[in-house]
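ASSEMBLY PREDICTION REQUEST
Request ID: AP-0331
Submitted by: J.K., bench scientist
Number of chains: two
Total residues: 660
Priority: normal
Notes: Please return the full assembly, not individual chains.
Input sequences:
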Amino acid sequence: MASIDVENVGKVYSGGVRAVTDIKLNIADGEFIVLVGPSGCGKSTLLRMVAGLETISEGEVKIGSRVVNNVEPADRDIAMVFQNYALYPHMTVYNNLAYGLKNRGTPKAEIDARVAEAARMLEITQYLERKPRALSGGQRQRVAMGRAIVRKPAAFLFDEPLSNLDAKLRVSMRGEIKRLQRRLGTTSIYVTHDQLEAMTLADRLVVLNGGQIEQIGAPLEVYHAPASTFVASFIGSPAMNLVKGELHGDKLAIGPAMVALNGFAPTSGAVTVGVRAEDLRIARDDEEALPFHLEYTEELGAQRLIHGTVGDQQITAAVSPEIALSPEMRVAVDTKRLHFFSIDTGKRLPGNVPAEAKLAPVEPVI
Amino acid sequence: MQTKRTVFHSRVLPYFLLAPQLIITLIFFVWPAAQAIWQSFLRQDPFGLKATFVWFANYTRLLDDPDYLNALGATFVFSVGVTVLSMGLSLLFAVCVNRVLRSGRFYTTLLVWPYAVAPAAAGLLWWFMFNPSVGIIPYLLSFLGYEWNHRLHTGDAMVLIIIAAAWKQISYNFLFFVAGLQSVPQSLTEAAAIDGAGPFKRFWTVVFPLLSPTTFFLAVINITYAMFDTFGIVDATTSGGPSQSTNILVYKVYADGFIGLNLGPSAAQSVILMLIVVVLTVVQFRWIERKVQY
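STATUS: Completed
Returned structure:
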């Protein structure tokens, strides 16, 4: 058990390529942090610096109260789950789990007990004598988790552990990882490029882009109050609609249409306006709305996504499948749920934060 | 496995395409081998005028011949020595090159050069370096109080041919080991590092076991090389001496057959050598390919 503090950490590879810039992140004891971002955003590099697999070019990483910059991975009291599981192919599952304990000179009886406990927890007891190649993807994933658990480390580091599994297994393993982490209460850092995985697992999300932190926050906070257009388009599916608009006093012009903002306009002039697909609806005849030209639809079962244009800008709306569609429609928007971003920097303009963003996280039932 | 199947409409064409390889194999391998087997059952008179069919007499006499048994022993020592030395060194070099990322290619190129040297030239090179009168190594050894003379000391002679033969084989082994090391996923060594294994322990408990297919393959190749492909080296350095100490099987075949002109027993020796190759090949394909799996 330990907190992890990342203080102004940067990474420059030999050859001058900069992967990570000035990361500041304080992770509380027992917290589940997810680093999320597109490939090449530096999330894995950051994780590997915490693990000790990459040297830290700038700044400090602390695990507990100890600065670990020059500490070997073995002595950092962490365990890592790799994307390809990195199970030792020539060892049985038992030996895979026991390897780290043996290297640390743990007595045989204790190794047996800890391996048995981890195997029971992960329901892999009957496979202990098998070699990894005789296991399915999901079972290998469990063994990789088991190898992390038996060591009882201060922190778990996950490097895209689910990306080699099929979609269905991924969902169930996701649940298991969360359950296990809650039960053990071990501080965890989890790297993924999958925003859904990030949303569902995290106590707090860290959205990275180009080696820098775009936003840190609880999943709902990030979802409902994205700090930049990058976060807005990265988190949530379908991606948030981002369109060019212009503020005239209390009115917002989007293409040919005008929307009254009812007293809220953060600035004036050109802005990027963000609106989630589910915050758009088909307008009643008597209300102010945007003219919507339908192009195609996608059926999700519970919802129907309608893609089209407002003026010359692409818009996606999520509507109930029962609503009848026509080629030319009008969509209304809840003005309280509009997001405004600076057209130059892409940063969120100060102003309204929807009430949902301040919802307390749901405490887990264990 | 998806392989492209080609269908020939003419029955002659496939044979025609295979013909060059088949003819070479028949003329240079099958025919001489058949000749050797036939000859091994014959005894020539001293003037080469007539030959008598003697069944297995050549073989039974060989197995009673102390010189032949000595050659068997020397071959065993030699091939084990060459295999262990060349594989050990090339594994060491491969591990070093695998760690040096940037200039790895440069070292690789340099390390592969000896493989292009002809055996006789390699032998001559070492013969010069170890020459008791003008060689650099005996000169250096003399400062350590060791008087090197492979013309007089049987041990020195054996060490000389082992070094010369191993040196040539290091390149080949090195290439395979480098390829083998690069196919061990980096995440495994990283996982082992996190699991608390130091560099040596990581190598011996994770990397080396994963190299075992390469290691076994090379062991067979090296033994085969040491037993059959080292004639040039022995001929150029020690010529089997002193007092038969480096008279390995492949050299004895030559010495008995072409210098001693004793064709029958020489042919019998080469047939025995051939059988050893067959056994080694079978071992490689049957046993090793299956057992060495992780």
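REVIEWER COMMENTS: The two ends of chain B are 21 Å apart (CA to CA).
SIGN-OFF: pending second reviewer
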